[in-house]
Amino acid sequence: MDFLPIFIDIRHKPVLVAGGGKVAARKVRLLRKAGGEVTVVAPELCEELAEQRAAGHIRHVARKFEAADLDTPVLIIAATDDREVNRAISEGARAARVPVNVVDDPELCGFIMPSIIDRSPVQIAISTGGSSPVLARLLRSKLESCTPATYGKLATLVNDYRDRVKERFADESQRKQFWEQILEGEVAELVFAGKEKAAREALSAAIASADPSGMPKGEVYLVGSGPGDPDLLTFRALRLMQQADVVIYDRLVSKQILELVRRDAELVYAGKERDNHTLPQEHINQLLVKYARKGYRVLRLKGGDPFIFGRGGEEIATLMEEGIGFQVVPGITAAAGCASYAGIPLTHRDHAQSCVFVTGNLKDGSLDLNWQALAHPNQTIVFYMGLHGVQTICTKLVEHGLAADTPAALVQQGTTPNQRVFTGTLASLPELVESNDVRPPTLIIVGSVVSLQDKLAWFEPVTTETEQKDIFSSNPGRDGKSEKR
Ligand code: SAH
User: Is residue 475 very low, low, confident or very high in pLDDT (cuts 50, 70, 90)?
Assistant: First the structure.
């Protein structure tokens, strides 16, 4: 995060605008809307500002900016057409520790002004960190169109009834659930339809008739988050991510995806690294039970698909035994995601009529797999967790009859900006991996379909200069600890 988004109360407080042109006038309008007492320092005023001065809405100091102007305001906007003057204001303000914005000059800004959607008291502020006001405006118009003008009224209504709801529901989680039902149900619709009186009556009735003891009990959502690219989430995954009270997530959930869970959800990192299961599986199972029993909606967030090398089956077996409600949301498994983004079709009429997913996790240095069944010329084999066993995998397949020149690929951090695809053969892949500082997670794909990659590769990761080190959630400093965001 480059900037901290905050909303500042400037009602009845002195604010300063340096500059008297149209740009300054635009800022003055905004500051006045937020209740600020505006002083404009400028030798001359444009028509709009002159009118405001005449109407007594603003104070005008008819001269150039001087250092003493910094003494009173709680906020300064520099909007003169002279960059040197703007720079002097910026430096002075920073020295005096007064927040300063220099219009259209991010470098000189102590704070930047967002693009705003105003449904007061509801406000949405959008920023691109100063990099593209046009992009911010585009985003704003999208959000404008899906944010009813009456949202503000809805917020006011909620505010009016907050204490009564608090009295009715002692339990915070029940309170949240009640408000969610209200804000997604009839009451909200009535407000949007302009029927505020009916909305208030409906809300009063809902509070009176609510039965806290009959509120839905805690439940668990076992959700697959796909291989990394947040765009590959399902609608249902996203909806549940935004409802959950507690999120228990694995290492292979990408950080970008984690950003999408409800802001005030409690986050619990459940780890799961090779040879270093941060929380033992049994502990995770019990954690799910514990939180659900408290009445929370628990999101168990996993990389890929929960039922493919995800131990999802074990987790829901425990929930079933304990009589806790749950649902399972499939995710795009690494094989599907990586194959698509690498340009390797897993099946192809001319190359492979079947495809198998195999774990390449070595137990005691040996791989206990049915190599005979795997080593088929018309079959694609996808190895999960195979990085450390790549040499063994390639050797065993050749030993069991696959040609040494069978095409083989390794996909690193598929679907993310760090995706890299290495293609070779069973003979050359181990050496390729060895010499290329490959980073997990990786997937190995073996079979003649890999030969198509050359032609079909389409995804070009937006590479930044340096590799992004923290695409996934692994964070040893936070292992096993729960935290609030
Ligand atoms: N349930 C997950 C798999 C968990 S096992 C799924 O359905 O995808 C973990 C293994 O998945 C990793 O060792 C790696 O082999 C593979 N994997 C997961 N995400 C990946 C990614 N973005 N790129 C490459 N491999 C990935």
Answer: very low
